């Protein structure tokens, strides 16, 4: 069984490791094989791998059934020449293909959807939004300018890119918890919304919530008014907020004469829960 069928679905490092495994005696193979399988399991979960898979699957119009049948053919080929590989190694190779094909089936079914968002960098200092860790909900975004915000001041911080969000989705601009904990800087309209139809440069409205103190002096030393309070300087490349991709259903409002008869009526107003 050649490993060429795996070259489109796996990195060179993993393929080399598998090839080296096959020359080992079965006892040594049994010890190392689970480690390689765990490594492949981790690889197929990464955003980078899933992005590459989506690009490869794009335009092929494959269904989950097509992929299942393709896997079965490969499994049959693996068993065609049992003299080439021991049963242990054949089963291992099948498990590798199961991991790879299951990851593709999940993508085709939309179980783990990756939404492609075209992005145009319009500043030499722009950075593409990034997930700090696998599985994070929010993508960090970065300032393209150096600026200082005085107490009570707000500014739009440009991010240096434009996006074309697919219909049915929005990008929400949210604060970063560490950024908010360390400073008085806040995302002024959190969560901000970037609509699917928005094509201008994306920016974040930051507000220095530190209260300004107006010093007008005293009778002997009057002043025109000097603002005191902590100012904050943002440097180019600083992570200042995060973006979260959200699905957006469309609402239809249906006029009715009395909403109190629909569902549960609490007859409450602001603070009606008593909290």
Shape: elongated
Q: How would you classify the quaternary structure?
A: single chain
Which structural category do the helix and sheet elements fall into?
alpha+beta
Order of helices and strands: HHHHHEEEEEEHEEEEEEE
| Tally of alpha and pi helices | 6
Helical residues, percent: 25-40%
- Strand arrangement across the biggest beta sheet: 2-13-6-8
What is Rg? Answer: 28 Å
Strand content: 15-25%
Main CATH class of the largest domain = Mainly Beta
Summarize the structure.
Helices cover 31% and strands 22% of the residues.
Structural notes for this entry:
Helices cover 31% and strands 22% of the residues. The protein is α+β, with helices and mostly antiparallel strands and 275 residues long. It folds into two domains: 4-109, no CATH class; 119-247, Distorted Sandwich (Deoxyuridine 5'-Triphosphate Nucleotidohydrolase, Chain A), CATH 2.70.40. A four-stranded antiparallel β-sheet has the order 2-13-6-8, with no helix packed on it. α4 runs antiparallel to α5 (87-109). The longest helix is centred in the middle third of the chain and has 23 residues, at 87-109.
């Amino acid at each position: 069984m050649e490993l060429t069928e795996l070259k489109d679905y796996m990195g060179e490092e993993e393929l080399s490791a598998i090839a080296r495994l096959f020359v080992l005696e079965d006892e040594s193979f049994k010890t190392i094989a689970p480690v390689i399988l765990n490594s492949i399991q981790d690889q197929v979960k990464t955003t980078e791998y899933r992005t590459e898979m989506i690009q490869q699957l794009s335009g092929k119009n494959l269904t989950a059934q097509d992929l299942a049948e393709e896997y079965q053919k490969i499994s049959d080929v693996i068993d065609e020449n049992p003299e080439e590989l021991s049963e242990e190694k054949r089963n291992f190779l099948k498990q590798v293909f199961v991991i790879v094909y299951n990851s593709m089936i999940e993508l085709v079914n939309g179980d783990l959807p990756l939404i492609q968002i075209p992005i145009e960098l319009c500043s030499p200092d722009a950075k593409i939004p990034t997930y700090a860790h696998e599985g994070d909900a929010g993508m960090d975004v970065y300032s393209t300018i150096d600026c200082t915000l005085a107490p009570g001041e707000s500014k739009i911080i440009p991010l240096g890119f434009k996006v074309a969000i697919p219909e049915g989705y929005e990008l929400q601009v949210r604060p970063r918890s560490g950024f908010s904990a360390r400073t008085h800087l806040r995302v002024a309209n959190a969560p901000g919304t970037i609509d699917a139809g928005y094509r201008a440069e994306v920016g974040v409205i930051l507000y220095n919530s530190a209260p300004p103190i107006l010093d007008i002096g005293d009778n002997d030393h009057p002043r025109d008014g000097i603002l005191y309070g902590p100012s904050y300087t943002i440097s180019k490349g600083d992570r200042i907020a995060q973006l979260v991709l959200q699905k957006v259903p469309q609402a239809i409002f249906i006029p009715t004469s009395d909403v109190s008869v629909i569902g549960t009526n609490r007859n409450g107003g602001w603070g009606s829960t008593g909290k």
